Amino acid sequence: MLNRWCSILVLVALLFGLLPSPAGAVKSYLFKTCNDSGFCHRNRHFASEVAKIGSDFESRYSINSQDLSIKKDKGLVEGSLLKRLNDGSHVSLPFQISVLSDLNLRLKVNEERTGFNSKALNSKRYDEASKWAFTQEPDLTTFDYSLSDDTLVLTYGEYQAIVNLTQFKIEILYKGTLRITMNDRNLLNMEHYRTKEQQEAENSIHIAPEESTYNAYSDSFKDSKKDKLPFGPESVALDFTFSGYKHVYGIPEHADSLSLKDTTDSEPYRLFNVDIFEYETQSKYPMYGSIPFMIAVSPESSAGIFWINSADTYVDIRKEESNIEEETDQQVLSSKDNLEKVETHWMSENGIIDVVLIVKNNPQSVSQSYGKLTGFTTLPNMFSLGYHQCRWNYNDELDVLDISSKFDEHQIPYDTIWLDIEYTDEKKYFTWKKELFPDHDRMLAKLDETGRNLVAIIDPHLKTHYEVSEQVEKLDVGIKNHNADEIYKGHCWPGESVWIDTLNPESQPFWNKQFENGSEFAGYARNLHIWNDMNEPSVFNGPETTSPKDNIHYGNWEHRSVHNLYGLTYHEATYEAMIQRNPDIRPFILTRSFYSGSQRTSAMWTGDNMAKWEYLKESIPQILTMNVVGFQFAGADVAGFFGNPDKELLTRWYQAGIWYPFFRGHAHIDSRRREPWIAGEPYTSIMRDALRFRYKLLPVLYTQFYQSSLDGSPIMRPLSYETPENTKTYSIDDQFFFDQLLVKPVTSPGQDKVSIYIPDSKPYYNLNTLEKIVGEGYHEIEAPLESIPILIKSGSVIPIKARYRRSSRLMTFDPYTLFVTMDDSAKAKGYLYIDDGESFNHSLDQDFVYIEFEAGDNEIKSSIIDGDATKTFTSKLADVKVERIVLIGGPIVPPKTVDVVQGDKNWTAEVLPADGFWTIRNPGVIINQDWKISLAS
């Protein structure tokens, strides 16, 4: 027994490095509720009135079948959606229905506005959100169809789209089963252009009895009373019903559960990018970013709605369940696909209706289909997956280098140190405060000696009356006021500021110049990267802490129309500038504000959280939500931005943070310093072990990012993505899969046990004890402070790098250890992706290897299944070996030696047996060549 525990301790030490060693509240009055927002108030009123009328309500929207243009070979239907006014006349709304190449259905409805004249404004409805969200306009595919006076049926693959022409509605059937109904409840509402005089005229034809005129031409919210609302009411709204579903995910950013809540009799979820101070948990308040994409999950299929609109948006959710106990067997049988449904109501302040409906076999396929439209996450620079140390602010050059050296002194790995706004001269971006940072080039070079990087903050607000902001005004590349006759001036960190308009293509050359090699700000350092904060944009004296909605952008578009995508345009401009600076280095950009497509060029974090246990707990569903909507490179400020965590919370947060795809410790300027060594023992050692474990897992994490860059798969994976057939997993958001590791961080104080849910019948192994755990359901495991609850799924091969190094760059040519957990069939499989970790040569020159490890039939083998092992970098891997292979759940009686074959050579390797596992010591195989090891005795 003693020998078994000694063996287990050695194995755990190998993985974790466990060796013996001596708040506040959101200022809600600043932000609108639905009732404060004219368009949301009006559309909720509309929905309420339609519901009162019930089945007797006749939709005002229809399509004349004679006016349809059906181009089945081009995958396109065009026509006019007719909105009936009170006198029987119609407003004609041009529409397109298209079948995308991935067999998704897209609907676009526009309005040709006439009678509006303005030199400052584009009279069109904003229709360019997809230009920013998509990688390119999607290809279309053919369909078959049938047409009658009242119905158009499109058939494509395993799908049918049934379009009701007389009372506009679209039903999507997948494999013969209804899955999505558009305009199911007749909540379609496109507020057509009409003047205030036309609307207020006696017996106006423009206002239906079910409509409201609340705040149609003015804004009564105290901070928005100056809003000109030049077009009057122009909202778009539409309802969608998911049939056969109970749970929906997505539409970040909110500090709420993974499974979205019913909003009946409460606030809808709001998508409006704001600088929200000390946000609340379990809240539907808007936050810093918006991704208008929702996923529904069920065992039979999954469905998605992508609402491509960048204006202020609210989403109502209503969940309905049939009472099976009160139905006859025949009723249950005949309606089994519709026992549950989720009704959603999407309302946007302006723009067009542009929506993509997705139905697939499982949630991963829905996420992948969305990613084909908006792009998959870009493979990040390896260093960016290491640990980031940040606070507002490190004081000066000596402070930065002292912090860096203390990590080495305490043998804690880290890759990046950060500088917040205080490094600048009077908060003028692209400058340095010379008395504090006299030689930033020297500082960067010193960091580079140990493979470390520096990230500096650059925000979009530019202090007036200095060179950079004066150039913005001279070049006319700033956001303008409502008259478009001068650059808008508001207040932010520097005081009076202007904001660069990164929707303007002329802003890009100017932005490039600020980052160019040899510039005063950036010099020639290759280890300088950028943090784009405050890009909602945050405007301290603006309504809801952001830009007035009637400000004007390039193209004469109101800010109202583009608000939610401004942050994306800003961080994309920075990404492009960094590419121009160093074309051979993958940029690292962190953004606070985001939109669909942001995953292509940035990482994100959940903003200004607090040092409280509930924020640690909330961080997991927040990041899981980001992962299912395609933004995998997500994290939260470890230990909380505001406040001072106690030592237990600090430690537990590091143990949770090592699983965040983006892993950064950060703190407010008024928070006490809390670098890992400050807490003292035993906390420092426990945090050190957690950080080292993150670095050991970098091969796993990097491989996961590679796979995600191909198919959009989550890095932190909800259990419902692993076992979509198990409905018990759908609301679980306090544990997750990380590759084949099932993790449940401790998120409550004083907790030394956790109950972890296993979603299937496969064996799992407790990583801390190697105990075999079998059986779907909850299992209690020990979780003392020094322990992270982790189970390894059987049938897995986990590649790690076990040696401590100061940074990820110094690990590049370290050997690998493979952990193999056999399933009940004595099989296992895993993958490893390797490239140089920083350049684009993996995509430009196939300079990478993608390796499949497979165990079974009494052998373990490694095969290169993609890439080229002879390229500039991969050829250097000829000196990188596998130094040990640990088998858990393998043959009961291990052999004394195993036979190894690689190329035309063969040899034997020693086996070290233990109770429950055994190790092949120094098998000597090279990582960039195929090999095979026979396990036969």
How would you sum up this structure, described in words?
Strand 27 and strand 28 (557-558) form a beta hairpin. Helix content is 20%, strand content 27%. It has 17 helices and 51 strands. Strands 6, 7, 8, 9, 10, 11, 12, 14, 17 and 18 form a ten-stranded antiparallel β-sheet that branches. The chain has 937 residues and is α+β, with helices and mostly antiparallel strands. Helix 7 runs parallel beside helix 8 (440-448), helix 10 packs across helix 11 (559-581) and helix 13 (647-657) runs parallel beside helix 14. The radius of gyration is 29 Å and the shape is globular. The chain folds into three domains: 33-374, Immunoglobulin-like (Sandwich); 382-722, Alpha-Beta Barrel (TIM Barrel); 812-937, Immunoglobulin-like. Residues 1-25 form the signal peptide. It is found in: Endoplasmic reticulum. It comes from [Candida] arabinofermentans NRRL YB-2248.
Task: Give the key terms.
alpha+beta; Immunoglobulin-like; TIM Barrel; 3 domains; ten-stranded antiparallel β-sheet; ten-stranded mixed β-sheet; 17 helices; 51 strands; 20% helix; 27% strand; disordered N terminus; Glucosidase II subunit alpha
